[in-house]
Structures are given as structure tokens and as C-alpha cells.
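In the previous chapter we treated chains in isolation. Here, by contrast, the input contains two separate entities that must be folded as one system, with a combined length of 569 residues.
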Amino acid sequence: MIHPTCDVTLLKKHRDLKHGYHSLTFGPYPRASECRPGSFIHLRVPGGAVYFRRAMSVAAVNAKAKELEIIFKVLGRGTSILAGSRRGDKFDILGPLGTVFTFPRKNETAILVAGGVGFPPLMFLSNRLTKSGHDPKRIEFFYGGRTAGEIVERARIKKPGLRFNPVTDDGTFGQKGLVTGPVERFIAAHRERNLRIYACGPDPMLKAVNELALRLGVPGQLSLEAPMPCGIGVCLGCVVPLTSGDYARVCCEGPVFNVGEVSL
Amino acid sequence: MTPDLRVRIAGVEFANPVMTASGCCGYGEELGAVFPLAKLGALVTKSITLHPRSGHRPPRTAETASGMLNAIGLANVGIDAFVRDKIPFLEKQKTRVIVNVAGSTLQEYVEVSSVLADFERVDMIELNISCPNVDKGGIEFGADPVMTERTVSEVKKVFPRPLIAKLGPMVTSIVAIAQAAEQGGADALAIMNSAYGTAIDVETWRPRLTNNRGGLTGPAIKPIALAMVDAVYQKCKLPIIGIGGVTTAEDAVEFFLVGATAVQVGTALFVQPDAPIRIVDGLKQYMQRKKLATIADMVGKVRKW
């Protein structure tokens, strides 16, 4: 059951992460604890200047305090309005919505591939995995960005034991180049392990990850983004083509799809 | 005094005058997870065609000032799957069910409607003769009075319960089309479908919809729809269901005042999935405040200058 509260969830905390990135923590929100890594919320932008809600991946949850956090980058009018919001502002949240990541088995190494603003659901996944007892040595977190400053929230991702692999286009932090290069090299060097890949980021990155995962036989999941009017499956506006030839709704059959499922 | 929200259209009683608009609520399953569908006056399904349609390539929607453009392309499961997979769900819903019918030929409208004739659960059908987003069918039937009358009268021969003709704004005279639908035997009119529109990405110089243009909906088109309902109400006896940007109870009241007996809520569902419930609640409050006993006390009662 989807319970539109519409009413009012308070903004508890707004952090400016610089380089256009912002973190908003809402609460108390009665359904916060239902959010899983991969879940998204459909957020009404206050003020009415933009018409649609904005779909935002959940970055973290504090179940006890009934709080949930989103992290986004200012890219247009909706996100610039959100970036101007203040503690105490009231928000209309719908969700959590959509499909979620399937956790890896204990003996599997999770390869998390984050591209730019696609990192929040993977940070959520990584933190949930370590919390639930998954060996952090079996988590490889690849995080690609244009430049050093765009690799945000490093301290929250780097957990003891977890391998953090930053990659920047300009080489100002971590390895230089596209994130998919080091990912492919890691897979090639660890074929003897049981691997499972998870990715969220810009379409060209997802396409590359999907191709290399298929080519190297690594199972996994991709989290997609699409312009999304309703978020609950009724408008059919957010569809993506599947390899089967059908269309699937990113809001209901996604946003998390299996590798090989979507025609990217 | 508790206001009476019930309305009658073509002999069918509705618990309230708030319906969902076709194409904005699928076949009811998703919305049924948001609120009990019994709270609606009626559920109007997505357009059903003879064969399944997958719809246009994305992007299919674009946000605009106070509304949206869409070119979904009549994506639907087709009449066979509708009857097999969707009617059983609708059978369980305690609301009126109106099935929207589309076709690319007159024969298709007739075939789909004749299948629906056998299902008593389908209280009414709504003929989509005004979809702006498909190459064939839709608007060509509703832009010409002769075709409108013929389509309505042919479908009337096979469908025994009331028929609503859904008209669009992209016509020379909506009054002429409305009169043609009345002549053809329509029992009610739904006014209006979306208006043509487009939007261009100035970086890529590409239209924001792969269909190159689409239908404009949402609050942006409400003034046009109100004027169309008003024009038709003056010249046509059929009950009118007002559609176009209805988001609040006040929007619904505006439509009643210019002559609508009921309203459909479309694009607002995408922003606020329980918008119909809020509108029903808001109508009760409005009618109490204005000391109005029934919806009919408002219909066509605009005080023109």
C-alpha cells in the first residue's frame, strides 16, 4: 500500500557538500524504516515552480529516529529550489517506491560502481552490507567523478576493511580515467572469486558496466534514472526498453534492474 | 446539512462527480494501492485498442510550465488481455467503471466495444476520438463532424449501455463536433482531451518527445477546457464531464459552473495520487460553506456579465 502523506515531513538537516552536492535529511517520516538500498522517494518541490515531483534515491536511513537522507546535485530548476531549502521546511514525500538491490551472498565479493551523483544508493547498500555482517573485505567500492571535489562523502563510504577505489576524469584523486577501466581490471584479476556487481550512474557508464558484466559473466544489478512524472506506475512516462522487446516502468519494474535486462 | 454529491449521467448514478481521467490511472490496480477506489465517482481506464500497443519510444513526457506534454502512444494491453487480466480486478471494485476505447479504424472501435458489451461491469464506454498522439485513429475521428457522428452511431449499435464521446480542442468548432456526437446517439460528452504541444531542447535541438509533439495537459490547459465546456453547454443538451487541469475542489466547481455534471482528474494524479479524494472532501466543505445541497445546484450556474 502506498500511503500518500502529502502532509508534512520536516527537513531536519541540510548539508552543503560543495561542488553542487547537497544532503537533505527528513524526519520524522513514518515509513523511513521501509527504505532499502535502491529505494527511491518521490519528492514534491516546494513552492510550485516546477510541476512534477522529483525522484530521489535514498542515501541513508535512521530507523529509530524515522529519518531518511537524500543526496543530489544541482542540475536544474527543481534541484536548485531543493538546494535552497532550510531546516524546518515542510516536504511532501511519497514512498519508498521501486525495486531494491538484492544483497550478495556471504561468499560473494560485491563490486559497487558509482558514477557521480549515482553514488547515494550504493553508499546505502555498502553501509547496510557492512552493518548486516557482510565481510567488508568483500566490498569493492569504485567511485568515479569528474574531479577530486566531486567524490563526496568519502568518509562515510570508507569503512574499515572495505576497498575504496576513487577514479577521476582528470586524475586529481585516485586513478585517472573512466571508472569502468579499473572495474574491468579488477574483475579480470579476480575471476576466481564469486563476484556480483552493482552500479548506479550516468547512462554511458551503466551501458559500459552492463556490457562488461555480460561479457565477463558477472551477475548483478543496475539502478536507472528516468524522467518520472508519477512514480507509482500509472503514467507510463518513465519506461525503458528491455532486451526482451517490451518496455518496463523504471518506477515499478525498476529502478533496480538485473544486468542484461535493459536495452541500454 | 450534509451535501449530496451524487450525480446522474445518462441514467447511471455516481457516488460523487469525481472520476479519474483515461491514461492517468492505468486499469486501476496501482491507484487501488493508494486509496479505496470506491471513493471515486468512477474509474476511467486507459484507452483500450484491439491489439496490444507498446507505445512510443521514450522520452514520452516532458515537464512544462504548470503541466506536462505526453506522447505515450496509447500503450495498452489490448482488449483480450484487458478482459482476461484486468476485468477480474475491476469486478471487485465498488465504483463505476468506464472503459475508454480507441481505434485506428472505425471497425476497431466497433470490435472493441462489442467485446465490452458482454461485460456488465463496464458501466459505460468512453470513445477516445481525440487522441493527439497516434498517426492513425484518434483525432481524425473527432475532428470531423461526419466521422464523429458515424463512429458514435456505429458503436452505439453494438454497445447497449451509455456511451461518452471524448472530444478534443484541436478542432474548428467543438460545438459542431459535440452536436455531431449527439446526433450519432452519444449519451454524454467528455470535454476535453489534451491540446497539441511540443518543447525543444535548445542544446541538442531535438524535441523533448521522440514523437516530436504530444498532448499538453495539466493546470496549463484548464482555462481552455472551461471555455470549451461553456461553449458546448450553451448549444448541446448532453451531460458534460469536464476535463482539463482539475487539481482542487475549486477547479471542479469552476467546471460545474460552466455546465459540467462531473469532472475527471488526470495529470494531477501524477503529482498527488490521492488528488480525487482531496477534491471530494474539498467539494463537501465548499458545498457546506455555500449551503448547496447538490452538485446540480451549481451546474451551468455561472453568473455571466
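The CA atoms of residues 14 and 24 of chain A lie 5 Å apart. The helical segments of chain A are 77-83, 119-131, 154-157, 180-189, 203-216. Compare these points with the single-chain example from earlier in the chapter.
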